[in-house]
Design brief:
The protein is an all-beta fold. Helix content is 0%, strand content 39%. The chain has no helices and seven strands. The chain has strands spanning 2-6, 10-13, 20-23, 43-47, 51-56, 61-65, 70-74. Strands 2-1-5-4 form a four-stranded mixed beta sheet, with no helix packed on it. Strands 3-6-7 form a three-stranded antiparallel beta sheet, with no helix packed on it. 9% of the residues are buried. The structure holds zinc ion. Residues 25, 60, 62, 75, 78, 80-81 line the site of zinc ion.
């Protein structure tokens, strides 16, 4: 099973039965989302037989396992971790 997180095109191999959590944060202050197919949709998930593609509409993504352990992240533009919402 392959998980791809777009638009970063980061691919991860998932073990059978492994579940992971993808979090993204909205770039806008009111927490709205541009959406892909519908408005206010933070994710678009494209599920095929042996792969999953997650399109995140936020500025960042944080990938972790079910226990909360971080697997990977693309968080250099994360509006939450940057710490200063004025920027
Ligand atoms: Zn973030």
């Amino acid at each position: 099973m392959e998980l791809t997180v777009e638009p970063w095109a980061d691919a991860y191999q998932l073990l059978p039965g492994q579940t992971c959590v993808v979090v993204t944060h909205s770039p806008t202050e009111d927490g709205s989302w541009s959406g892909t197919l519908r408005r206010d949709e933070p994710f678009q998930v494209d599920h095929r037989r042996d792969s999953v593609t997650v399109w995140a509409n936020g500025n960042c993504f944080h990938l972790s396992d079910m226990a909360g352990g971080a697997i990977d992240a693309a968080d250099w533009e994360c509006p939450v971790q940057s710490g200063d919402p004025e920027k």
